[in-house]
TrEMBL record:
Name by which UniProt lists this protein: 2-oxoglutarate ferredoxin oxidoreductase subunit alpha
Pfam family, one: PFOR_II
Keywords: Oxidoreductase
UniProt GO molecular function: oxidoreductase activity
Ranges where the Pyruvate:ferredoxin oxidoreductase core domain occurs: 250-343
UniProt keyword annotation of Oxidoreductase present: yes
PANTHER family: SUBUNIT OF PYRUVATE:FLAVODOXIN OXIDOREDUCTASE, SUBUNIT OF PYRUVATE:FLAVODOXIN OXIDOREDUCTASE-RELATED
Organism: Sporomusa malonica
Location of the Pyruvate flavodoxin/ferredoxin oxidoreductase pyrimidine binding domain: 14-199
InterPro entries: 2-oxoacid_oxidoreductase, PFOR_II, Pyrv_Fd/Flavodoxin_OxRdtase_N, THDP-binding, Transketo_C/PFOR_II
């Protein structure tokens, strides 16, 4: 297939359309504005529906409604906008409604800055809304990965009847790269995907309709619903994805995801030429976290773990600590508030560790 040159946000939207997404509702916020803008142009071309809601709260509840009919549905926002959508996301998880959403992260807390950051890790992996539900969370490091993850996310969402999150920092969302787009699902395939949801979908009333509404709160059996959901979460070990780069002989292992991992990988190539034995563990699914990649490290060789992320205070580090279990020191290399991680900063942090 031929390659095209696309911006991250627009590529995510196109991947969703090709995956069969036929409903999108959203609200403008930098740096994800190109996603709803692209959907506004693209949805009419495929017989889909685009709505600019009056707010983030309205938009997520529109997705809740559209997803309830079995239609592949999506929303997107940035950081503080995702916070506003969190109640609706929790409702979708409670009602077991498949939907996909993207967070093109910006600085924080609060309104923060419009520049890229990775300060939503806790929100994405630990507390995306009330009630303790869980989601598959994918963190791309390239525009191509953002496409591939978005395309596949709709299948995961439909398989589990659960929200799926693409956690994509503002760098990936706004940069342009050559990419290969996935095949466009035919209208027959899209119709078949919706038909496969008919046993649970809210499709109106009539003598042949088994389901006319979807109960969001499981008021007559919430604990049973939670037990069922927990059993489903426990099956996600098979879905964990991770990149391990030059860890076989590494004495210093960098832990990083998204754009920080991409920067760190380029730093490793330079450090290796200097004779420094450095490797990288990059979570591709940040939830569930690839704990096993840290478990199998040889801690008689590994001197230290370097946590590299665009968050102050560090957030990824909590999962890294849980994985390492005090078997070696963990140091940090951090930026925050829209300051992008630099290769020089990573190189300097590794050299400092080597001096120790």
């Amino acid at each position: 297939m031929s390659r095209v040159f696309m911006k991250g946000c627009e590529a995510i939207a196109e991947a969703a359309v090709r995956a069969g997404c036929r409903f999108f509702a959203g609200y403008p916020i930098t740096p994800q504005n190109e996603i709803p803008e692209y959907f506004a142009r693209r949805m009419p071309e495929v017989g889909g529906v685009f709505v600019q809601g009056e707010s983030e709260v309205a938009s997520i509840n529109m997705v809740y409604g559209a997803g309830s009919t079995g239609t592949r549905s999506m929303t997107s926002s940035s950081s503080c906008g995702i916070s506003l959508k969190s109640e609706g996301i929790s409702y979708c998880a409670s009602a077991r409604i498949p939907m996909v959403f993207a967070n093109i992260s910006r600085g924080g807390p609060g309104v923060g800055s419009i520049h890229p950051a990775q300060q939503d890790y806790f929100q994405a992996t630990k507390a995306s809304g009330n009630g303790g539900f869980e989601m598959l969370v994918f963190a791309p490091a390239t525009v191509q990965e953002a496409i591939d993850m978005t395309y596949k996310a709709f299948d995961y969402a439909q398989r589990d009847r659960n929200p799926v999150l693409i956690l994509c920092d503002g760098v990936i969302g706004t940069m342009m790269e050559p990419v290969v787009l996935p095949e466009m699902k035919t209208e027959e395939e899209v119709a078949a995907l919706k038909e496969a949801n008919k046993e649970w979908a809210c499709i109106g009333h009539g003598k042949d309709v088994k389901r006319g509404w979807i109960e969001p709160g499981h008021w007559r059996g919430q604990e049973d619903a939670n037990i069922e959901a927990a059993a489903m979460y426990a099956t996600w070990d098979k879905d964990v994805q991770v990149e391990e780069y030059m860890v076989e002989d590494a004495e210093i292992v960098i832990a990083a995801y998204g754009i920080s991992a991409r920067v760190a990988k380029s730093a490793i190539d330079i450090l290796r030429k200097e004779g420094s034995k450095v490797g990288l563990i990059r979570p591709i699914t940040v939830h569930p976290f690839p704990y096993n990649s840290f478990e199998k490290l040889d801690y008689s060789r590994v001197k230290a773990i370097l946590d590299v992320e665009m968050s102050i205070p560090a957030q990824l580090i909590y999962d890294v600590k849980q994985a390492v279990k005090d078997r070696c020191p963990i140091e940090t290399c951090l930026r925050s508030g829209g300051q992008i991680m630099s290769r020089d900063a990573v190189i300097a942090a590794v050299r400092k560790l080597n001096e120790k």
